[in-house]
Amino acid sequence: MKYLYITCIMLLLVSAAHAQSWKNQSIEQIFKQARTEAREKEFTKSREKLQYILHFVPNYHDVSLQMGRTYAWEGRYMDALLIYNRVLKQDPGFIDALHAKIDVEIWSDKLDKAYETTRQALEYHPDNEGFILKKAKIYQYGGDHDRAIETLNEVLKVNPANIEALDLKIVLEEESRQYTAVVRSGVDMFDQSFDPAIFGSVEVNKKNNWGAVIARVNYAHRFEQFGLQGEVDVYPVITDKVYGYINYGFSQSVLFSNHRIGAEVYAVAFDKLETSFGARYLQFSTQSIVTYTASMRYYLKSFELSVRPFYTHEKSFAAASIDFGVKRNFKKPETYLEFTAGLGYSPDIRINQTFAGQTDSFYTLESKRASIKVQRSLGDRWSAALESRVNYRELSAESDEYLLITSLISTIKFKF
Known about the structure:
There is one protein chain. The chain is an alpha+beta fold. The protein has two domains: 19-175, Serine Threonine Protein Phosphatase 5, Tetratricopeptide repeat (Alpha Horseshoe); 178-415, Beta Barrel (Porin), CATH 2.40.160. The protein has helices at 2-19, 27-39, 43-56, 61-73, 77-90, 95-107, 111-124, 129-141, 145-158, 163-176; strands spanning 179-190, 197-208, 211-222, 225-239, 242-250, 259-269, 273-283, 288-300, 303-313, 318-329, 336-344, 367-378, 382-394, 402-415. Helix 5 (77-90) runs antiparallel to helix 6 and helix 9 (145-158) packs antiparallel against helix 10. The longest helix is centred in the first third of the chain and has 18 residues, at 2-19. The chain is elongated and about 95 Å long.
């Protein structure tokens, strides 16, 4: 028992000696170790070493700033600001301290104070790109995109090659354009004795703080008939990772459903997976249909993989369909390549509505379908897309005949 007690005492002494061994190192070695611990989020250990250094070198400003950063990274903004203010009282123009203080004031939503600190920093360093860039970000966070862009132009006057300023300017210009006009036109061609059918739409999209709204007019000219349908889509933001979809469409033409109502809720999980569940209601001249749908979209680097099933159940009709998609996004904004394929029955898939106006039971027709779409940015405001579709579908529910429909759709978008 005596030997066990002595052994425990020795182990404690060795452990204590090892724990304090860093004090035998040089000031710079201790500082390096403290920075490493801070990066590894061992803030208490890091501050112990930083405080030890400051005991011997009270005006070592880099150490003080590192101490402030550990508090800021923990969300203890007031503690961080006390340290930064103490450093700036001794050296009002110290660049690193000014940058650190502005960052903390931005993170703590004190934009007025951040702006004032930036103004003071620019009095000491009028041509400092970093401080001018900080001012632009303050305007951005405050929602004043116009003044933010003006400020970024000041940065680019000092240094036209400032990558961060160039990238942020592109983002701000994109965000400041709340409207998008879209013109879409297409043609269906049949392998039997039907004349080509023309269709398309004109829409205007508007982004808001609470979401987005789209007003659209669809048109169709087929089987010697012309029809229009008006639609409104609303995408309300519910939380940071949940948003909704609400749709209403109306038409008096037999080429469209008389009423179309859609609702869906989307949720993002793990920042890579988006799921949804919703329903569509279609009212035709002789029948109403409710279709349930869901979706799953997985983001894999520059790819998006998606699947969307549909299920329709009525007294005389019950069927399902499914669609798959693969989308490849490119670095250039608004530029991608997308392939989709699907099979089954679905009255809501607009590629299947070709025979509206010819038969009241067009929505019961089975089809196999595929499409490929390419979209490319044409500058910072314009983009264009071209889509080719193939739809192999039943000619009628009573026969065993199929019709091959090939479609070509072009789209032009303009942001303003």
